[in-house]
Structure formats: structure tokens, C-alpha cells
Amino acid sequence: MTILDKVKTVRIPSTNLRVLDSIKKRFSPRVFSSEQIPQSDLDIIFEAARLAPSGRNHQPWFFYVTHIKTPEYEKIFSYIPERNFWAKTAPVIIIACYDPTEPKDGNNRWATYDLGASVMSLVLQATELNYYCRQIGSFDWDKMKQEFSIPDPLQPFTLIAVGKIGTEEIYQKADQETVQKELEPNSKKPKIYQNL
Question: Which domains are present in the chain?
Fold first, then answer.
């Protein structure tokens, strides 16, 4: 069995229920192919994010896209911890932002929740197109906002690495500590609800 086969075996959660294929096969790898994503696929991925539900239909999300081998892409890595070095192989990194304001009440309590719904739509659509996503929450929000002149009231909240999963050859050349993390089982809680 190849490394890639082993990764998919342990990382893809098992289920016997009829959930959507994009939910069933989704997981977050740390090893990506740097193969570029066609703009037409990115357009579809962001269209899915655009159509997500939100409180009062405020749609408090906005995304900034950076592509590998560009100055903007390289700058991102000065604002995230060294442990996230694996992201440097992803062809696209997205800065997902939210708008915390609400026209009527001033403060949108659900803005980050709504951003999460939009990001999940983005992730599932990417999965449907055979891309993978892994998110990064640890980064200097304020410095990134300043570096990329992200206008108020938008606030960066998470980064999303997007791309094809690494090939077997890429996995064999990858950092061994990263590969070992990839081979750790992707366990999920067995029960998350009950009737009241």
C-alpha cells in the first residue's frame, strides 16, 4: 500500500449512512500538489461560498486569494507559525474575513458563525471538484490586515490552503514528521446529539 493510500485509509472517516459524497470523502491534508487551480474552478468554489446562508441575509464574508509564487503568497508566511510550513506547497491560500458590523444593531453576533457556513460551502464544493482544503487559525490577524490593506470593517479570521492532494512522489519527499501526522487516524465523536 502506498503512503497516499495509507493516508486516505486513516484520514477519511468511515460511515455507513447516506451522507453526501463530498462530506464523506472530505479531510484536511498537510501535503499538497503545487499544481495550479484553474480560475474556472476557483469561480465555482467561490460561487458555493457566496450562496451560503446567513443571519438576516447579511452575508458578512469576504475572501482574498493568493497564488503560489507571488509576493503576496510569500508574505502570508511571515504572519503564521513555523509549524504551518506545510502550507507552502498549496497552490492557493485564501484569507477568509468577516464583517462584525450590523446595519441595524451595530454588532453582528453571528458574523463568525455565518463565515463558517460560507467556508464550509467553499470546502465542500472544492471537495466535489477533487480539491482538498486545510484551514489555519493561528496567525497574526492585525498584521495581516495591515500588510494587505484589508479595509475596515473586515477582519481576517482564518486561512484556507486549497489544492490537489500530494501525489505519492510528493508524499515520499515530504517532511517525515508531517507524513507521520498525516498517518494519524482522523477520529470523530461517535455521538453528537440526543433527543430532549
Answer: 25-171 (3.40.109.10)
